[in-house]
Amino acid sequence: MLGAALSQPVSGQPALRSGLAPDLIIVNAILLSPERDAPLEDAWVRVSGDRIIETGSGPIDVGAARIIDAGQGFLIPGLIDSHVHLYHATGLRRRYSEDYEALYQDYMAQQPRSFLFHGFTTVIELNADAATNARFEAAPLHPHLVHCGQGVVLSDGFMALELGGEPVWDTYPGYLIDTHAAGLVPEGADIAAHTPEAAVASVLDQGGQCIKLYYEEALWWPGGAPAFRLPSVDIVRDVVRAAHAENLPVLLHATTPAGHAFALEAGVDILAHGLWEWTDQSFTDPQPSAEIESIARRISHSPIAVQPTVQTLRNTASLFDATLLEDRGWTDVVPAAYLGYLRGDAQAQRQHFIGMFGQMIAEGDEATDMAAAQSAFLNRYEDLIWEMSTEQARFLFGSDTAVGGFGWASPPGLAGYWEMQNWIEAGISPATLFRSLTIDNAVAFGLAGEIGTIEAGKRADLLILRANPLLDVTAYDRIDMVLLAGQPLERSVLSARQSEAAR
């Protein structure tokens, strides 16, 4: 039983190499950590404050420390979701609900706990909003938050289309002027304040630890998108140089062949999405063109890491999946009233989506036509991801929770668990998934000194699982306990059901 004290501690254990007295000791664990070649049986971990101070196996003198008996459970590092958006509430739109504000506030109050419920002790926000960050970190229990500050956008780029006519510089004061391509210089703007170096400095001033850029062609825009500028390769190379001078990784939002080819030319570090827009091909073509296969192969053989974010596509497909909202996991991650909204008023999204995008996707305009098309679309993308994995592509785990747009398949924490299942269904190995959720994400974002493995000196973000995640992905949904910076949390206290019962 977790938390049970050992009645007869075994003496004879050597003195602590760290010299620190432990507050807590986890015993009787099978330790899985990505830097190890094999599990460590009969393992123990000493924790002082928020730090791991020693690991080992066999007999141990526990002294006066608090004991957590893992009961031969699997002890793994806390998980990292490296692609989240904390300001979206999945499936919630003002047009569909008169209770928008109440639903939004209740959703956001539960959101941090829901990430923890599914083992995500660190989340990385790729386009941060200061007020949202403050709200998230003010929650009594919340994952550690790393962010990229605001996304670095062009003065006349795609993101301006998202602002409803408001000037992009009002929302993104650290915007970038693409001087290599005669980019827009707003009236009264000081070009020197909007150079790559200035944009990186702005992100640093916001506390950002990464840079997010955009190469969005908006090929999906009904009737064709209004005019906007794509970044030049020279301006992105300049941003990469400025970011690397500050030891910041650079991510690029891109989903098209042109965008991924651009990433190769510009030398970014991470693609925030996979290659899922197949230009000059039908939405339901089962196989990519030779050009797309070539680009995917080049990405796989390059230093660029990819966040597949399969769940982003499943978010749209959720409109046509009648079973999704019956998943038992919903009740642990969103309030009951919110789930009721998704099952009720939110369903109006389906016909709205068909009216806007139906002719672009399927020959028929019924929900069954859309469902079949979305299924084919997902199958071909997962096949491409599998092919990239066979070419040794570097994948980083990110869920894109909660992606905007149509659909409701992006609940906090649960969407991450679904993304894990997507990877396994696509043929990615459990070992690759495990590394991506832990050390690979930590290394890519400069966090490996703090998290990603179970080693002395690392932050004590740990999970105790009842099954081996290297054998079965469902082990990630069999969490007994979350340790957050050394604080033990029974999983049940993080559930939305318990939160509501305590009100």
UniProtKB/TrEMBL annotation:
<dbReference type="InterPro" id="IPR032466">
    <property type="entry name" value="Metal_Hydrolase"/>
</dbReference>
<dbReference type="InterPro" id="IPR013108">
    <property type="entry name" value="Amidohydro_3"/>
</dbReference>
<protein>
    <submittedName>
        <fullName>Amidohydrolase family protein</fullName>
    </submittedName>
</protein>
<feature type="domain" description="Amidohydrolase 3">
    <location>
        <begin position="66"/>
        <end position="488"/>
    </location>
</feature>
<dbReference type="Pfam" id="PF07969">
    <property type="entry name" value="Amidohydro_3"/>
</dbReference>
<keyword id="KW-0378">Hydrolase</keyword>
<dbReference type="InterPro" id="IPR011059">
    <property type="entry name" value="Metal-dep_hydrolase_composite"/>
</dbReference>
<dbReference type="GO" id="GO:0016810">
    <property type="term" value="F:hydrolase activity, acting on carbon-nitrogen (but not peptide) bonds"/>
</dbReference>
<dbReference type="InterPro" id="IPR051781">
    <property type="entry name" value="Metallo-dep_Hydrolase"/>
</dbReference>
